[in-house]
Amino acid sequence: MENGDLRLIPPAADTKAAERARAAVFDGSPPQLTEDLLAAVLENCEDAIIGIDLQGRVFLWNQGACRMFGYEARECVGRSIVFISPPERRYEVFETLCGIAAGEGLRRRETVRMRKNGERFPVAITHSPIFDAQGRLLGISGAMRDISGEKAAEQALLLTHERLLESQRLGGVGAWEWDLRAQSVWWSDESYRIFGLSPHAFLPTPEGVLSRVVPDDRPALKHALSRSFSGDAPFEEEYRIWRDDGSIRHVRSLARLDKDAHGAPLRLIGHIQDVTERKRSERTLRRSEERLEESQKIAHVGAWEWDLRENRIWWSKELYRLFEQDPDAYTPTYPGLLDRIHPGDRNRVRKAFEEVFLFKRPCDIEARIVLPSGSERTVRALSKVEVDRSGALTRFIGTAQDITESRKLSDALEELNEQLEQRVAQQTAALRQANDELQRALDELRDEERLRETFISALTHDLRTPLIGQQRALEFLQNAPGDALASSDEISRLITSMQMSNRDLLAMVNRLLEAYQFEAGVVELSLAPTSLPLLIQQCFDELFSMASAKSIRLSHALPADGFEISGDWALLKRVCVNLLGNALRHTPQGGHILVRGEQTPESVRLYFCDDGPGVAEQARTQLFEKFFTRQQAHKKIGSGLGLYICKMIVSLHGGEIALNEKAACGAEFVVTLPRNGPTQGGNRP
């Protein structure tokens, strides 16, 4: 230090050299560079030049450091240098101070530092000690260079190298180089893999590589190398190699010969590819072509292709045989083909080809050909077209089969088949008619038997039950002691019970008779103008007491005017009462039953909706069948006829009744009736 100035000197190889260097600097002779010029060099240096004392505090911060870290010099001087180091790398400052203090000279390292905005970036740092004139260590200077670009380039190069290796692995392509002067060979990893060898166990040499070639292929390989060395041809050869596991692989190798300034061979650089699978595919393809040719010969089927861009036609061997032509003497052309077509079929064939060219669609045509021998053959041609991206035809490919014998046989079979079809049709019609009649008779018998069994079983049960009750009541009256009959209330109760049973039996018989009257078609309608709102309200009045007992509200949303049809008031009332009665039985306490309607100029539609549990899915298809009831546990004759009779009445009016399976309420029955009454005879079941 002179006059308070610090001098930076590079470390010498030893102490004496350092002393000589310091003496040369501080010998009092005038410096070659002025201090201003030196300061200007430091300030304008692209690298960051930073000086720290032995406590790690910054005393020098040039413009390069300002640009690199984003701090001004006034923000840094006096601060510990660790503020530009990431927390996990601050130990490096202490390590550098200790090393310089221990006498180390220049130190260079690559590490990571941190900008003012927190961004981390790679740097290369060169540290050197700072001595005063007496050789005392005063601090450390550091020159830092941002090596982000170099690291990115290294990473890109590494990535490129990895991609190259991966592409070689995926493509089964290995690289190699043969130094012809040093007689040394270099292989890439993929080359080792192709030969099934390990880089640690095999050192490639020209002799060692040749020993891995199948003996029969060595002469050809040597000849190809000789031609390449002499400049007659580039090196390109396919040969077989054997692996230590005994397997044989097919490889293809290409190389470029480099020469020195005098034209002497210098090195051979190339690649090698495993083509075993390709060779196997080629053999398979050849066998397939041989089989195809044989099968074409057996089936008399020839193949052809017409390249429209080059106007060149190719025929298979079988097609030449079919047309009795010599492949070496005859060149197939479109005009020549038309000349071979029978005159009676020529225009039809020409038109078929024109349509192919015009509409670009496949073709299937049969035609007769005339052979050089004068004989005729019938040929069936199948073809398809190929187009390019612009839609232009590029190729026309297809097959041609000799169907002469099969056509003769087909014509004979077709004639015989027509005769057989006529006979079969006649017999089938007769059998179908007889079968239909038999099926109808069987269906009627089954229906009658099922109805008879159902009717007898139900009637026997439901008639027997009340009669037994009445019999026991009479026996009680006959056999009871005198004092047991003292109560007239008891006698009155028994008589009332027998009267109710008799009424039920009478109603049951009446419903049965009524059902069979509808089935027999003896019920006649008494048509008259019928107001449906009035009809519904009258039904509500009759069922009021039954609804009140369960606190069920009855309402309708029908206008007073407009809902009028031509119908039988009494029968339609029975339909409405039955549907509302069923709804009352299945609607819970305090529920609601709503009747709403829709109308068109031709018909009206009534919806009977309740709050009940709805109709079970398995019961929906049987709702309108005779004797079916949703209360299967207490089924009796006469019950299960309500909806059946409703259907009969609605059908007589020419309408329909159905269950709305998509209703949002519990159960909703839909009755559709024509406005002007039924057509002739109604819709009798």
Quick tags:
single chain, 685 residues, alpha+beta, 6-stranded antiparallel β-sheet, 5-stranded antiparallel β-sheet, flat, disordered N terminus
Please sum up the structure shown:
The protein contains 19 helices and 23 strands.
Give a written overview of the molecule.
It is a single chain. The protein is an alpha+beta fold and 685 residues long. Helices cover 44% and strands 24% of the residues. Strands 1, 2, 3, 4, 5 and 6 form a six-stranded antiparallel β-sheet that branches. The chain has a five-stranded antiparallel β-sheet with strand order 8-7-11-10-9, sandwiched between helices. The chain has a five-stranded antiparallel β-sheet with strand order 13-12-16-15-14, sandwiched between helices. Strand 22 (656-659) and strand 23 form a beta hairpin.
